[in-house]
Amino acid sequence: MTLERDEIFEIIQYSLKETAEVNDIALEEEISEKTPLYGQKGLLDSIALVGLVASVEERLGEMGYNVTIASEKAFSRITSPFLNVRTLANFVKELLDGQGNSHHRNE
Length: 107
Fold this sequence. Notes:
By secondary structure, the chain is mostly helical. It has one domain (5-98): Non-ribosomal Peptide Synthetase Peptidyl Carrier Protein, Chain A, CATH 1.10.1200. 50% of the residues lie in helices and 0% in strands. Helix 1 crosses helix 2 (46-62) and helix 1 (5-22) packs across helix 4. The longest helix is centred in the first third of the chain and has 18 residues, at 5-22. The radius of gyration is 13 Å and the shape is globular.
């Protein structure tokens, strides 16, 4: 069984708060689907983005889901999965769903 999208959103939300605190980034508003992550209007620089991705991967790993978010698949997309919380949550959900029965869930 794979994670629901709202569970993925909560993982990203928690990881973003943690990343912002570590990197001294002010989160002016409540984190939403539209919160910009990386790019022209993004809150994160490249170092903070790496930290966010590592944090999300770590949390997923603790739940038994082994995924690599920063991959050729991510960087070859026309629309970056790192633009905002929505695009990242959708991308993680896609990765987890794509693993099917072989998603390495430790039960």
